[in-house]
Task: structure prediction
Amino acid sequence: MAKLSDLVTLPFFRDLNDDEIHRFLHATGTIFKRYAKGDRILRAYDANGSIGVLLDGSGQVLTEDRFGNESASHILERGAILGSSSAILGAPGIASVVALTDTHVLWVTWRALITAGTRLGRIHGIVMKNLLEAFCRKNYLMTQQIEVLSQKTLRDRIILYLLQREQRQGTTRITVPGRTQLARELSCNRSALTREIATMEREGLVTMGDDWLALDHEKIDGSKA
Result:
């Protein structure tokens, strides 16, 4: 099982101490499960009654239709919430999650989370507040993604994507995924993305490294004038 000292840093347990987290785990019958790289953490259209919290490693969200066609979506990292929609609504989700690395997930059943309220008091209230904030954050990120994909040109998608992540990461040197994943997030062809970034670099609109990009705001503002 994960160490309590590791759990206390998760957004899911924000504002709880080690003893309170231990009480929560005991009262809700929370389980910890390990997944190897390539394992399916969640499967689309399977029944699911539990909410998961990614404790380490990373996972890839895959949207899937009834014919089995998959489309790669965003990457999940430590602290991400899994399976909440299918657990709360009681209906199978349309997204799968595959482990990109060896990882561990904390699972708590939605029913146990609800019924433990009378036994946990303020602890329950804090966890539910944290869960609500996670839902709001997820919706906010989805809205940002829609805004990016609504841009008319690939260049505008790239610029807005980087501006959003500047705010999120708190730095002008933005850590970005590999070109294949970035192309998926921007819903474009990988070759077209590589060409456009190279053109933007030649024009001085961005600088780049192995895993980062940075906008030149003066030139970006000038190009939009």
User: Anything to note?
Assistant: The CA atoms of residues 179 and 194 lie 7 Å apart.
